[in-house]
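Example record

One chain of 101 residues, shown exactly as stored in the release files.
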Amino acid sequence: MLEIDMKPELEEILDLYAKKDGLSKAELARRAIAEYLEDREGYDLAVEASEDSAPHISLEELIRKYGLEDQLQQEGREATRQAQPGDTTADHELRISAGSS
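Predicted structure tokens for this chain:
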């Protein structure tokens, strides 16, 4: 059994939404707590996974590591030449492939 003390304003809001949803205040509170705990568990798992993953590397570091500066500049110039004046669509792609060393 759980007993919760809350400010009258919060209890009024709880009562309003419980009535609106056709639930008791206790059922609405149970559902809200269950949703919070599910969200929190997912968040904690995501944080844990990000801490356990491989080291992070920025895009700039990847570009330098694989020596792609010149290729990016050249492809950027080609994409600029291919774009039509007034073209606002995002259909120009930059493809980068790096072979294993």
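Notes: Residues 1-52 form one domain.
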